[in-house]
Amino acid sequence: MAEMSRLQRHMMEPQFDPQQYVQTLSQQSDADRDLQEQRLHVQKLVDDTALNLKRNVYKNYHQFIETAKEISYLESEMYQLSHILTEQKSVMESITQHLRSTDKEAAKEKPTAFPKETEEVKQRTLTTLLEKVEGCGDILETPGRYLVYNGDLVEYDPESMSQVQRVHAFLMNDCLLVASWLPNRRGAVRYRYNSLYQLGDLAVVNVKDNGPMKDMFKVMRYPDCCIFQAESSKIKKEWLEILDETKRNKASSDKLKKEQERPLSPKTPDTPLDPFAEEPELSPAVEEDSIELSEPWIQDLPEDLDVCIAQRDFEGAVDLLDKFEDFVKEKPVTQTVTQLRSRVGDRVKQLTDVLVFELSPDRNLRGGPRATRRAVSQLIRLEQATKACQLFLKNRECAVRTALRQLRMEGSTGLCVRTLCHVFFCCLLQTTREFQRNFAAHPGCYSALVVWQRLALQLFADAFSQQVFDSKECLSSIAECVALACSHCEKLSNFGLDLTFTLQSLLLKDIKGAVQASKDVIIEATKHRNSVRARNTLSVSLSVC
């Protein structure tokens, strides 16, 4: 024993050299028996060390498991943080792009109570909003008209003060449009043209609050009078201020136009007119640009996009947009190019809305993840990968919910759990494969996939707990069901999905409760048997006496 302790201390020294130790041992040993003894000592030390190591592992086993779980939780939180940062990055990029595209001359304009937008942006916003109103196509034909403010209001009868209808008001720089809300209408058109008021013939009067009749203002145009109610006092104040400001701007602009249209005294030209002089020629660059932009496919591009969208030819529409971007990429930014971009931009917005509707959960979910491939790929081509990722995962979440809700849980618990695991994990695997196929070139979207997988596993855990733990099954049946679910998670690890720790954390509370309930049952049964045995023993002893 002393020899073993000495050998152990010697080998634990920091300067211990195994090769030198063997060489010294060979020189000092006189026979083979000494070497065999030393070999036995070393082997026994190896066995003792292995035994101590195994004991330490068993002793700290729970700590190892807890550490691994904490690492898994931390990894999940880091993925969620990465997903949030990716979303913030996309928002910042969109804001930066919008600020760069804003006309620099807008900063030189006089500040007003309205947002500093260019007339082009305001005109595009007005076009987009009025597409939702039925019967107002002639309003867009007035040049220079743009949107100032809009919002939902409630119209009241001025005599009986009873509610008439819900309306949406569009305040433009020269008029006020009131559109009625269509409650049963689905699609892009949600309002119907009701009335149009010119700002020059309009008077706006505040209405004092009287009990429930509050946040109202009156719009008068002889001989008509209308009363509208805003959603809050703040919105009412904004309407009154902006209406007053817009009327003053309209009056000042009309006055300025009248002054500019006054006839001026005719002036004689400084140089005599030469009837035989040649007309000035356009510069080659401007002439070439006008010729290229007058090509038939360029002029017909907005209409071709409308046809592709109506025929659901999404690939053809995106191909036309790519061709257009390649064409105008190297062109100078002229007014013609800007107008053409504005018209095409409205079609891009319309195409995006259609693709978003294709990915909405209201569509048919029976096609599986492949049914969304077409819309997702076109959104990615339109440089909207983040939106495509969100819509795809939301669609698959609804598909998982629907699949779990439509399952028929009939028969034994083991059979039901086997069916539940097969349906859920097959859906999870299909979604992951389709995600990897669609977003292979966008690694920043994978954090959203991890968050979605945890959410889907939460749905599975709820259904699993309801089927297994709420049915008060025996502990052996519960163990078989949990082992079956864990085996499916292990199969997914071959495809790069390690969800074992997540599933264990979701089921841990119910498993502890089941074990505790089984323990209580065993204790009660043992107490009952002991009491019965004691009574039997007592009765036997009394009978003998």
UniProtKB/TrEMBL annotation:
The keyword Cytoplasm does not apply. It comes from the Eukaryota. Residues 250-284 are annotated as: Disordered. It comes from Eptatretus burgeri. One of its GO terms (cellular component) is exocyst. It holds the Pfam family Exo84_C. Keywords: Exocytosis, Protein transport, Transport. The keyword Repeat does not apply. One of its GO terms (biological process) is exocytosis. This is Exocyst complex component 8. Residues 146-248 form the PH domain. Residues 250-264 have a biased composition (Basic and acidic residues).
